[in-house]
Amino acid sequence: MNTGTVRHYLKREDGNVTVFSIFMGVLILVITGASVDLMRLESTRVALQSTMDRAVIAAADLDQTQDPSTVVEDYLNKASMSGALNGVSVETALNARTVSANGSTDLDTFFMRMSGWDTLTAPALSTADERIANVEISLVLDISGSMRHNERMTRMKPAAQDFVRKVMSDESSGVTTLNLVPFAGHVNPGDTLFDFFRGERPKLKKGNNGWGNGDQDAPGGSLCNNNAENADEALLSPECGNAPVGADAAATIPLVTTFFPEWPNAIETVMFYFDTDEDDVYNRAHKVTNIPVNAPRDADHFFRGLVAYLMAQDSELSSPGQFLGMSIEGGWAKDTKYFQVKGDQNMEDSDIGPSKHKGKFPGNTYDYAGVDIVHWTDSYVSPNIELVAAEGGANTSADTTTGADSDQNINMPSSCVEIYDNEFMTTAMPLSDDYVPHFMFWEIDREVMQWGWCPGEDATIQYYSADRQFLVDYIGDMPMYDGTGLPYGMKYALALLDPGNRDEVSFLITEGLVDSRFEGRPIDWNDTETEKYIVLMTDGQTTDQYRPNDPKAAINSEVELNNQGSGTYHNFSVKSNNISNLLAQCELAKELGVTVFTIAFETNASATNDMKACASSVSHFFHVQGEEISDAFDMVARQINNLRLIQ
């Protein structure tokens, strides 16, 4: 080709666009293909990272019993990513576990290989830990009578027990404490703390302790006493029950002083109450059952023999003065009444006191037929020590009462302290020394409930416990009582997290009710290593607070206030005021950094709104039905256990 031809082709421009288009097409293909490869890489990385996140969370769970490395490997194997795991690191402490995992996977490229990138690597790094710092929990449980409906109590108990098992694992021992706060109409802080609050128990009513002379009423309006001139004459009077009754040998035992009336029906069971710590409040109780229908209906014929027998069986009972009194159950309505013996002032009239014949009690059950009443009666010694000694020696079977100036406490079956409106503006323990009377307001269901607006000593606060099994068992044994005193439950729950109340904890430690390793609790509000929680569960609306006009009337132990008629009780605090007190405590808790969980269990709209307002946030509130209560407690437990993904 000559020079002219070459020069001709070099000058021509009609092929330039085609060449440019080829280069641009190749470039666009490379860039577009690279985007596809990069999208494939990101999808693979996200899948690997997500799988590894789930794996380390499961492995870090302190409830996980398998080896953490094995758990991580298993997660990746099941996701067909077994080759992607490079390593697992595990750090375990007494109350914490941290699991880290890293890995990568190579992805063959489709388009980027045209640029020299044959493979791309998708990395993943994940770390999770579960650590239990110092944790203080107040678990507040509704044991009101409405919990008997729709199997609520039956469902609540195992759910709460599982919650305790989850938040109080072996790894949390020593760092997690739980205050169990059962509530009905009020909250019972227990006999020991009641005394610490300077609680003043009511005294036995004073009255005429002498015999009648036919012209005046004797104590209790006893026909026997009114017709007899003196004790010697009464011994000869058939009206005092000295004539044999039926075939029971106990009926032949002479009566000296009558503490019990003729029971209108056959007596079925009797419960004897004893005090071993000298505060006139029972802490031992023994039940005698299977009393034959032909046994005397006047318990004065047989109670002395049974008391002497029971004291001989119980090594904790050593002094006659430990015997306080007895309650009787019998009749189609299963009515129960309590009768004081030690320091009694009203003879055969009933008294305020315990009448617990069902459920768990601090003692044993004995069969009436197994006791030789006549034999043991000779061993009986009156608990009224001073006058027994004055009448002729410690072993006399004569039973007399203490003088009219007696300061004998009523054998109260519970220990609630009144809490007044201004106290709900603080986090202090109760400040008054007023006791809450023993009464019911709504009609009792005797098959499942115990008598009392204030729960008895079988449903008291359990303080700063680290004993998981004890709490599980205690929850399982809790009976139901009357009323729904939500503000009182919340008041105690928050007070037990307040470091200003350490004196109470120190006192409980000295009394052996709290482990000494928890001296110094509650921990300071602002402690960065401590988390405080309240878990409040209820099935009902906060109620009015009723009180009997005569708090010492024995009828309050036998007839519900609502059935006594108008003029027998008053409204101590109306419902709206009680709701305000509840929410005031909830706000205080949130201001102080306490996380408040609330569980509304089959509640109405009004109660549901109260529980929602009380919770730390909407996510801390649960409204559940039926079996859902187990899920609610489980979710709360998992949040408290503080499982966190930290990278």
Automatic annotation (TrEMBL):
Span of the secretion signal? none
For this protein, the record's Gene3D superfamilies field holds: von Willebrand factor, type A domain (3.40.50.410)
Q: Could you tell me which residue ranges the Putative Flp pilus-assembly TadG-like N-terminal domain spans? A: 15-60
The organism's superkingdom is given as: Bacteria
User: Does Hydrolase appear among the keywords?
Assistant: no
Alphabetical UniProt keywords: Membrane, Transmembrane, Transmembrane helix
Matching SUPFAM superfamilies, A to Z?
vWA-like
Pfam families xrefs? Tad
Residues that span the membrane, as ranges: 20-39
Write down what this protein is called: Flp pilus assembly protein TadG
Q: Which organism is it from?
A: Marivita hallyeonensis
The upper taxonomy is: Bacteria, Pseudomonadati, Pseudomonadota, Alphaproteobacteria, Rhodobacterales
